[in-house]
TrEMBL record:
Residues 5-81 form the HTH rpiR-type domain. It comes from the Bacteria. Residues 126-267 form the SIS domain. Pfam families: HTH_6 (PF01418), SIS (PF01380). CDD domains: SIS_RpiR. The keyword Transcription applies. InterPro entries: Homeodomain-like_sf (IPR009057), HTH_RpiR (IPR000281), RpiR-like (IPR047640), RpiR-like_SIS (IPR035472), SIS_dom (IPR001347), SIS_dom_sf (IPR046348), WH-like_DNA-bd_sf (IPR036388). Keywords: DNA-binding, Transcription, Transcription regulation. This is MurR/RpiR family transcriptional regulator. GO terms for molecular function: carbohydrate derivative binding; DNA binding; DNA-binding transcription factor activity. The keyword DNA-binding applies. GO terms for biological process: carbohydrate derivative metabolic process.
Length: 294
């Protein structure tokens, strides 16, 4: 079974291996997913002709703690599926117009996945921790995650957050070992498995720091963090030409966090942002509308 298979795909795949009662549950859900999302365990048990404990056992077999969590994941997957109005092309195009279309589709799909997986509570917890932090260390390794970590510093410093980027796997655990309760690690990782990031999360938390991880749910890094922000976007490793979708998802989550931080610090940094814009005007004149720092 593909590691990134949606819950809906997984139910279809395991259908032949289920016992008779669980198969009735899966078939009842797949017959009308939209209706199943709004059902209680009693509603579904009556529709499927099984007991309520069977519903709970089925949810746990699918990897959830209970029917409530199962429905939440089902609703996210179903929402994602409905957002995907564009089909995935089988071959890489050769002309610029078709390539532009394929890149656009890949980006739109990544944003759809990210939006469906958003957790407002976790995002607000992350923003609150950053807002109150003495220092924020932005970490990632590899191409996409390291670049997004650098972008996190770029987004946060203009809101007067003491943010710095550390992408060197050697420096990461060293910095984490120097953290204290007022510090925050903001970590980006597609897989949630790089050794330096796991060690950094462990050391930082042992010192009382807050660890925010934008990474795959249930990954080692997610489990090691104090504020996990789940992000799991399927990518086809065979298609090197198409941009990595996870990068767009990471940027979406970062933008959510940064915007929440900005809202929390609006009164505090308003005057400083005006000074920053004045500085830019003195450097190269009035250019009209322009993001601060670009």
């Amino acid at each position: 079974m593909h590691a990134n298979a949606s819950l809906i795909d997984r139910m279809r795949q395991v259908l032949p291996d289920l016992n008779k009662a669980e198969r009735r549950v899966a078939e009842a859900i797949l017959a009308d997913i939209d209706a199943a999302i709004g059902m209680t365990t009693r509603d579904l048990s009556e529709k499927a002709g099984v007991s309520e404990p069977t519903i709970v056992r089925f949810a746990r077999r699918m990897g959830d703690s209970g029917f409530k969590d199962f429905k939440l994941r089902l609703s996210r997957d179903f929402a994602t599926g409905r957002m995907f109005v564009m089909s995935e092309p089988s071959d890489i195009a050769a002309d610029s117009a078709a390539i532009a279309n394929q890149v656009y589709e890949a980006t739109a799909q990544a944003l759809a996945y990210s939006f469906a997986q958003r957790d407002p509570v976790a995002l607000d917890r992350a923003a609150e921790a950053i807002h109150k932090a003495q220092r924020v260390f932005c970490m990632g390794v590899g191409g996409s995650s390291a670049n997004v970590a650098a972008e996190a510093e770029n987004r946060l410093y203009r809101f007067d957050v003491a943010a710095s980027t550390i992408i060197d796997p050697y420096r990461q655990p060293v910095a984490a070992s120097l953290c204290g309760p007022k510090d925050v690690l903001l970590i980006f990782s597609v897989t949630g498995r790089p050794a330096s990031l796991l060690e950094s999360a462990r050391l930082a938390r042992a010192n009382g720091a807050t660890v925010i991880a934008v990474t795959r749910p249930a990954s080692p890094l997610a489990e090691a963090s104090s504020v996990p922000i789940g992000l799991d976007i399927p990518d086809d490793d065979r298609r090197f030409e198409i941009p990595n979708r996870s990068r767009y998802g990471q940027l979406y989550m970062l933008d959510c966090i940064a915007t929440l931080v900005a809202a929390k610090r609006a009164e505090r940094v308003g005057a400083k942002l005006r000074k920053a814009r004045d500085t830019l005007r003195h450097m190269h004149g009035n250019t009209g509308q322009q993001p601060i720092g670009d």
